[in-house]
């Protein structure tokens, strides 16, 4: 055993009683390293630090590491996170570093929560996770436990990470543990979710990995821990949750298109349909963004051999929805005898959903690009991000009213837009609300709500 390992008794393969292991965990005798200090990683590191008192966070972004070590929280709009990070850093329970391999040396539990993305051609990209696995392997010791929380294509732990960790560390099967412990957390509620909004799923490469991970997370969560058969089952649980959501949002977006032909408020029909328990039709919107829900289908479509036509079609429907929004706008501008080309359009929102500073796969950006392609002059407003890399001029939410716009599209319902006086716009301005977010009952003018119509 390496010198370091003498300092911390193992959790994986421990010969202590369960209660002794639990006490050791909460006393910080199993030092934890969390790889990735982003929207998910920082809240996760915070809850581990609250529970064990000894967490090292690793991030490649030096500014993130510096801010954490200053007790400063870089993740916005997460209730309780700012205070928790400041207190835990001040107490010495949480620190950060850019040196993943060194941090691995000091850890008994390695938690991986770095991005799993897709490439330009929609291939799953697990390269960041494998890069972190190499860092971990440099410091992996017998008795360590690796808990992967990044969403992965099912089979990745078994077929990619386990062989890689064994090969790079020189340790054998059964000398250390690997468990897939998916993060079931939403930005904006991250601390509450990590602490226990939902049951925690754990699945190990072997029974001891599952046991050790279940014990650790049972100390972390106020909810239950659900052990499953193996890592692949746990990976599938997480991906299936996302697939369910993408397909159901696609259904909602497709139903919303019946508004014109049926002459009904489809949203009203959806709300009433959902009054019986077998229906949970989701909300129509401008499309599906973020680096999760629109990415996870490719963790099956471009990973497994088995055809999945429903998943592929749902992706097509959701990806076409931003263009459908622009089609609606163009039709209403042409009804007035004008053309979209040469019109000035303000798009409210750039991020993929309200309150989250994340632009990956954002439908609002697709709307801006489509408007630009069709010759419109595009302004984009967002309280959290700028318009870098987008064919639009950024405008402050408070300055939106100063723009002589032919049309305004509410793409992301940030609360900062609640203050906009929609009646101040000339009646000729076309307003499109893709989120049914405007309280248009009181408005003296037409607003086209996607799924509701004029
Ligand atoms: N964002 C969400 O709502 C949820 C995300 N997840 C999973 O968590 C993953 C991470 O999500 P977020 O935290 O939102 O991503 P994020 O982009 O907010 O944060 C990722 C962090 O990892 C850091 N990083 C990148 N490469 C690294 C490396 N080699 N070593 C150490 N740090 C590195 C980045 O600098 C960044 O700070 C997602 O890809 C997904 O698989 C799971 C549930 C919810
Ligand atoms: C199954 C599930 O609810 N997954 C959540 C999801 O969080 P995420 O931040 O991606 O937001 P989201 O609410 O799913 O929205 C994704 C996209 O879909 C849109 N959206 C969402 C719900 C809906 O009814 N209609 C709709 O158009 C949103 O505006 C956004 O553009 O993905 C997260 C993840 O896995 O990364 C996951 O942890 C979260 O619990």
Describe this structure as you would to a colleague.
The protein is an alpha/beta fold and about 450 residues long. It folds into two domains: about 20-230, 3-Layer(aba) Sandwich (Rossmann fold), CATH 3.40.50.720; about 320-450, Rossmann fold (3-Layer(aba) Sandwich). Helix content is about 40%, strand content about 15%. The protein has 16 helices and 16 strands. The chain has helices at about 5, 20-25, 40-50, 60-70, 80-90, 100-105, 125-140, 155-170, 190-195, 205-220, 230-255, 260, 265-275, 300, 310-335, 365-375; strands spanning about 30-35, 55-60, 95, 110, 115-120, 125, 145-150, 175-180, 200-205, 225, 345-350, 375-380, 395, 405-410, 430-435, 450. The strands form three sheets. Strands 3-2-1-4-7-8-9-10 form an eight-stranded mixed sheet, sandwiched between helices. A six-stranded parallel sheet has the order 13-12-11-14-15-16, with helices on one face. A two-stranded antiparallel sheet has the order 5-6. Strand 5 and strand 6 form a beta hairpin. It is elongated, with a radius of gyration of 24 Å. The protein binds 1,4-dihydronicotinamide adenine dinucleotide and ligand SAJ. Ligand SAJ binds near residues 186 and 288.
């Amino acid at each position: 055993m390496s010198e370091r390992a003498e300092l911390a008794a193992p959790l994986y393969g421990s010969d202590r009683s369960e209660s002794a292991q639990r006490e050791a965990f909460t006393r910080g005798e199993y030092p934890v390293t969390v790889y990735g200090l982003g929207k998910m990683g920082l809240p996760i590191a915070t809850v581990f630090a609250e529970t064990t008192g000894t967490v090292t966070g690793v991030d490649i972004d030096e500014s993130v590491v510096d801010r954490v070590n200053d007790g400063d929280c870089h993740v916005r709009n997460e209730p309780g996170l700012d205070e928790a990070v400041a207190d835990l850093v001040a107490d010495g329970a949480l620190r950060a570093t850019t040196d993943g391999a060194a941090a691995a040396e000091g850890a008994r539990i390695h938690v991986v929560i770095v991005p799993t993305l897709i490439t330009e051609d929609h291939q799953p990209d697990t390269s960041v996770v494998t890069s972190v696995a190499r860092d971990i392997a440099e410091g992996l010791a017998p008795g360590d436990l690796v808990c992967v929380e990044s969403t992965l294509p099912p089979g990745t732990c078994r077929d990619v990470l386990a062989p890689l960790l064994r090969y790079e560390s020189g340790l054998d099967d059964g000398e250390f543990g690997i468990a897939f412990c998916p993060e079931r957390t939403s930005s904006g509620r991250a601390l509450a979710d990590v602490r226990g909004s939902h049951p925690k799923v754990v699945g190990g490469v072997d029974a001891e990995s599952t046991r050790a991970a279940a014990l650790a997370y049972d100390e972390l969560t106020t909810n239950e821990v659900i052990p499953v058969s193996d890592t692949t089952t746990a990976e599938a649980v997480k991906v299936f949750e996302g697939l369910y959501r993408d397909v159901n949002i696609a259904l909602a977006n497709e139903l919303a298109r019946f508004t014109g032909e049926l002459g009904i408020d489809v949203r009203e029909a959806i709300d009433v349909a959902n009054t019986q328990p077998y229906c949970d039709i989701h909300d129509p919107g401008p499309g599906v963004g973020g680096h999760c829900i629109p990415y996870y289908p490719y963790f099956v479509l471009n990973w497994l051999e088995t055809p999945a036509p429903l998943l592929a079609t749902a992706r097509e429907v959701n990806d076409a929805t931003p263009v459908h929004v622009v089609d609606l706008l163009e039709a209403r501008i042409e009804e007035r005898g004008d053309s979209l080309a040469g019109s000035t359009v303000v798009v409210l929102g750039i991020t993929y959903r309200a309150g989250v500073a994340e632009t990956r796969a954002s439908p609002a950006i697709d709307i801006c690009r489509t408007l630009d392609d069709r010759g419109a002059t595009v302004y984009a407003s967002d309280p959290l991000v700028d318009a870098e890399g987008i064919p639009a001029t950024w405008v402050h939410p408070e300055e939106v009213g100063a723009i002589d716009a032919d049309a305004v599209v509410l793409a992301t319902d940030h609360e900062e837009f609640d203050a906009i006086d929609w009646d101040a716009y000339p009646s000729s301005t076309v307003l499109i609300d893709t989120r049914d977010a405007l309280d248009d009952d009181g408005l003296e003018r037409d607003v086209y709500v996607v799924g509701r119509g004029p």
